[in-house]
Amino acid sequence: MIRGLYNAAAGMLTQENRHDTAVQNLANVNTPGYKQVNSVARSFPEVLISMMGGSSDVPTPTIGKLNTGVFAEEALSLYQQGVIKASSKPTDFALVSDMEMTDPATGQNIKFDGSGKFVSANGEVIYKPEAFFTVQDQNGQIRYTKDGSFKVSTDGRLLTSTGYQVLDSNNRPIVLTGSVDSFKVDGQGYVLDPKTGARGQQIGVSVVGQPYQMVRDGEGVFRIDDPQGAGVRLLAGNDRVEVRQNYIETSNVNASEVVVDMNTALRAYEANQKVIQFYDKSLDKAVNEVGRV
């Protein structure tokens, strides 16, 4: 009976985490570049139950397996591209990315599923590479973001909406030399001279080969603890990535799907709550009524 209480409590905690994740997604449905998060639940290891107290001459009979509950293991981000919307601000940017990869087994282009994953014939899991703006936090640490709603500081530095420094392809701060109205960038991210049209600094765009190794760091940015293991590299000329000025990538949150998931988590939470109340009443009877007999 006590084991049932623990299992139901674990279920409540898992559904609470699932509900909180859905609320977070809904709160960021209008946040540029936000990527939807899905809560992943896992079951605790099963245990094999055997009968106790038997004779040493008789083999102990096996009763069966027992599941020991569930827990919220992790939260996975979906890196599907959001809708690209036109903007009137010259400091708004969007990355239009459609990276291609070849299946090493067949030599054909990979068709990734909705989550950006592909499983080859030999069981190898391949993830779709994703492109991110390269930025720097206040401590000088490299971070990555899809939020291209930039702004310009008083000293001409290009910043993210939350104040992170936007870097160029050499990890140097991008500084505007002219007015914001004359700020022009081509499709490869090069800042164009307003008078001659000559290319200057290139907006830093990083391609991440293993995007599921990225960790949310708050304020719309991600960090990567092992850049080499995650396959981080600079944007190459043959990559199918375009930098679009005067555009912004919206959140990829599916609001209707998230609302359904939130309500499902609430109902499951209530069901586990009822189970705990049932066990509580049963224990009450066992202690206060059966104990008097």
From TrEMBL:
Instruction: Give every Flagellar basal body rod protein N-terminal domain span.
Output: 5-35
- The Flagellar hook protein FlgE/F/G-like D1 domain covers 130-191
Flagellar basal-body/hook protein C-terminal domain location, by residue?
244-288
Q: Which InterPro entries match?
A: Flag_bb_rod_N, Flg_bb/hook_C_dom, FlgE/F/G-like, LlgE_F_G-like_D1
- What GO terms fall under cellular component here? bacterial-type flagellum
Show the Pfam families listed in the entry: Flg_bb_rod, Flg_bbr_C, LlgE_F_G_D1
One Gene Ontology term of the biological-process aspect is:
bacterial-type flagellum-dependent swarming motility
Q: What are the record keywords, sorted?
A: Cell projection, Cilium, Flagellum
Of which family is this protein a member? Belongs to the flagella basal body rod proteins family.
- Any idea what this protein is called? Flagellar hook-basal body protein
Can you name the source organism? Paenibacillus mangrovi
